[in-house]
């Protein structure tokens, strides 16, 4: 199976790993440093070998990744090696010079649509069509209704972008209560200040 290297900034781990998991679930082979580098391996060497050995690269684009020297190095190696590069925009930013003429996949408004396009690029097959309402199939672990979940997702969207409803859906299957759900979601926000703002907006502070 043709493997695609996932390039991203560590600050974007939440959405990058979610994208990797969803691509894997759709049948794509994705190499991710947090999953595929073993404790005994040298990080830089493992990443370089993976970039040079992959079929192509998926780049998660955000202000953090476009400012990352590591991401810039990975993209340069991929381009110079003639690899296929698929940019996935998760947050508005200035595109790197070497990527300005590339067609990118926009995930800033509709994550499910972006995922389907990405799956088509790397596997040649369409992903499952999105649900009309993302909360419709949410297991009621917390007992919260769709109307109660939506404001929480809206509050989280201001900090994490379009992945927010997906995270709410996932964590709602595990949380024991509304407070536990908000706490779990808050752990995806790196900044303590932003985390506190989210908990306040979600009514959990």
Short overview:
By secondary structure, the protein is an alpha/beta fold. The chain is built from ten helices and five strands.
Strand content: 5-15%
* Number of E strands: 5
| Strands ordered across the widest β-sheet | 2-1-3-4-5
Low-confidence stretches: 126-139
Which descriptor suits the 3D outline?
A: elongated
End-to-end CA span = 47 Å
Q: What kind of sheet is the major sheet?
A: 5 strands, parallel
What is the count of helical runs? Answer: 10
Multimeric organization = single chain
SS-based structural class?
alpha/beta
- Provide the helix percentage: 40-55%
Mean pLDDT score: 85
- The ordered string of helix (H) and strand (E) elements is EHEHHEHHEEHHHHH
Query: Compute the gyration radius: what is it?
Result: 18 Å
Describe this structure in words.
The protein is of the alpha/beta class and 205 residues long. The protein contains 10 helices and 5 strands; from the N terminus they run E-H-E-H-H-E-H-H-E-E-H-H-H-H-H. It has a 5-stranded parallel beta sheet with strand order 2-1-3-4-5, with helices on both faces. Strand 1 (3-7), helix 1 and strand 2 form a beta-alpha-beta unit. Helix 7 (146-160) packs across helix 8 (164-172) and helix 7 (146-160) packs antiparallel against helix 10 (192-201). The radius of gyration is 18 Å and the shape is elongated. The model is unreliable at 126-139 (pLDDT under 50).
């Amino acid at each position: 199976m043709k493997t695609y290297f996932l390039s991203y900034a560590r600050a974007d781990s939440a959405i990058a790993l979610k994208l990797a998991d969803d691509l894997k679930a759709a049948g794509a082979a994705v190499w991710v440093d947090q999953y595929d580098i073993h404790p005994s391996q040298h990080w830089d060497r493992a990443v370089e070998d993976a970039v040079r050995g992959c079929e192509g690269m998926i780049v998660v684009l955000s202000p953090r990744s476009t400012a990352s020297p590591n991401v810039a190095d990975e993209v340069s190696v991929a381009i110079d090696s003639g690899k296929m590069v698929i940019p996935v925009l998760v947050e508005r930013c200035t595109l790197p010079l070497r990527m300005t003429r590339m067609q990118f996949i926009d995930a800033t408004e509709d994550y499910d649509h972006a995922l389907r396009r990405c799956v088509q690029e790397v596997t040649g097959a369409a992903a499952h069509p999105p649900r009309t309402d993302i909360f419709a199939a949410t297991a009621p672990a917390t007992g919260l209704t769709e109307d109660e979940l939506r404001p929480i997702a809206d509050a989280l969207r201001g900090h994490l972008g379009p992945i927010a409803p997906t995270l709410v859906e996932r964590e709602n299957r595990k949380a024991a209560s509304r407070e536990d759900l908000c706490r779990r979601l808050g752990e995806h926000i790196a900044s303590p200040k932003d985390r506190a703002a989210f908990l306040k907006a979600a009514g959990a502070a």
